[in-house]
Amino acid sequence: MYYEMIGFMAEPHGDTPAETEFPEVELAKSAIFLDFDGTLIDLADTPDGVDVPADLAGLLKGLNDATEGRLVVVTGRPIEAVDTFLGGYDGHVIGSHGAEERFEGNHTAHELAGSDTVARLGDMVEAFAATHEGLVPERKPTGVVLHFRQVPEQEPQVYSFLSALEQSHEGFELHHSKMAYELRPIGISKDDSIKRIMENERFAGRRPIFFGDDVTDEPALAWIAHQPDGIAAKVGSGETAANYRVHDPSGVRKILAGWIGE
Fold first, then answer.
1. 165 near 183, Cβ under 8 Å?
2. What is the mean pLDDT of residues 85-103?
3. pLDDT tier at 5 (50, 70, 90 boundaries)?
4. Do the Cβ atoms of 181 and 145 come closer than 8 Å?
5. Is 50 exceeded by the pLDDT of residue 170?
6. How far apart are CA 252 and CA 211, in angstroms?
7. Which helix H or strand E contains 185, and what residues bound it?
8. Residue 84 CB neighbour total at 10 angstroms
9. Inter-CA distances, 173 with 64, 75, 125, Å
């Protein structure tokens, strides 16, 4: 069967059977939302160490054309980083988990973006990482991340430190992701951003499709899975509210390429 060939399998969800074929997708009537790290590309030990396939930007451009501009990259990365890794893709982007947005050419950002408070948080997290070998800090326009992928045994120390910063900095909340913790503004989420875009007149009535891999993607996966014709695809292992599953990013890219006839 086709889904077996490309590493695709369904995840039990409600009355959905344990295995089912991927539904037929009409791109001209769909809106596609794609996470980046762990979904379109494999994860790496450091944020800058990822390997981005040379043809990925072209694949996204093809999808954007086929959906008539209804493709959105939805990522925890800043938009600037997306542009660096996906040179040539100039479509819609939800960045920093929703704290930044580029939609129809207009770039908007949360009021804390680039603030002195965010800069001070970055300084403190970098200072902490400098005294703990293997930790990798990552500054963002609206927050900061501390990765412990190389030293998983240090997760308790990372959590305790960032939890203390959360308590002392009003307006920020702590989030857990794959081998990292992140401080970002309260009320920011991928699912809220996706819902808002789906209410836009250009997207309304389209079939929503979302591929994501992390716990930060689960609220959006759950929302789309419960839409009448929504396709929510979990990438990789782990419990999920999604109604489909893809084994890895290479499987995601194969599915997307198949949709545009490549």
1. yes
2. 94
3. very low
4. yes
5. yes
6. 8
7. strand 180-185
8. 12
9. 33, 18, 15
pTM: 0.90
* Inter-residue long-range contacts of 15-23, CB under 8 Å, 24+ positions, other chains counted: 16/243, 22/244, 22/255, 23/231
How many beta carbons lie within 10 A of that of residue 158, not counting itself? 22
Q: Which residue has the tokens 């039990």?
A: 12
Q: Is 55 left (phi over 0), alpha (psi -120 to 50) or beta?
A: alpha
Question: What is the pLDDT at residue 48?
Answer: 92
For residues 124 and 166, give the distance between their C-alpha atoms in angstroms, rounded to a whole number: 12
Name the nearest CA neighbour of 200 among 26, 72, 107, 76. Answer: 72
Which range among 82-91, 138-147, 185-194, 211-220 shows the weakest confidence by mean pLDDT?
82-91
State the burial class of residue 2 (Cβ atoms within 10 Å of its Cβ: 0-12, 13-18, 19+).
exposed
Considering only CA atoms, which of 78, 77, 90 is closest in space to residue 114?
A: 78
- Beta-carbon count within 10 A of 50 CB: 18
Q: Between residues 162 and 14, which one has the greater pLDDT?
A: 162
Give one word for 68, left, alpha or beta, with left for phi > 0 and alpha for psi -120 to 50. left
Cα(178)–Cα(185) distance, integer angstroms: 19
